[in-house]
């Protein structure tokens, strides 16, 4: 039984990570072939850094991901605060359910509905081509919000409410109590939501495809356009760099979460 379970686990991990491993290995292939490995080389990385269109698309993706993740984190944190303070249980449950809809919706439904919304609003306002970087920013912020709320809300649930009451009794205003007492305690959840929103925005293709314009192209859209022709081998190098970046971010998130748990346990031990 143990052999079967280990074999099953090996097959699952092979299916998940073998394609990624092949991509990383062949990004260093000098011959630029997927059929034979001719030797280690950084040729495709050098070519990548001379591809101005790819670099501009990468810059657009990072700027969009950074802006949308910061907005989603700011809005999502205060939305989680409002949900935590809400007294009516049924209203809170209803809002929670509505908040989770974007996570359950297929991306294509979200993308088409947002495109129709932006085009309709543009028509009512008499604007011409409304689709572009601003509509992408709104769309990415919108679909990232539920993930931020999902990361932050449990931290509010775990927070000891007597600390907030003590701060208020000692003369803090509600705002001072939040920023000085509650916010430091929920920082790991806020940071996790920020990183998740960033990676979701960086990775998104379907929604971006519907709300973008030709003058603002993100990296997933650029790579998709490459598939109409022969994909450049420098794209393997670019994908490898993205994989490494996301891996580092995930390690940072896990490290921050573990540090938060250790700090919490130390405080509980002191008490």
Topology readout:
Blueprint: H1 2-26, H2 43-48, H3 52-85, H4 89-99, H5 101-104, H6 107-124, H7 133-158, H8 161-169, H9 174-203, H10 206-211, H11 219-226, H12 234-270
Helix pairs in contact: 1-12, 3-7, 3-9, 3-11, 7-9, 8-9, 9-12
Care to describe what's here?
There is one protein chain. The chain has twelve helices and no strands. The chain has 271 residues and is mainly α. Helices cover 79% and strands 0% of the residues.
Structural class: mainly alpha
Main beta sheet: strand number and arrangement?
A: none
As a whole number of angstroms, the C-alpha radius of gyration is 23 Å
- Spans of at least 5 consecutive residues whose pLDDT stays below 50 are none
Shape: globular
Q: If you average the pLDDT, what whole number results?
A: 82
User: Helix content range of the residues, please?
Assistant: over 70%
Strand fraction = under 5%
- Extended strand count: 0
Offer a few descriptive terms.
single chain; 271 residues; mainly alpha; globular
Provide a compact summary of the structure.
The chain has 271 residues and is an all-alpha fold. Helix content is 79%, strand content 0%.
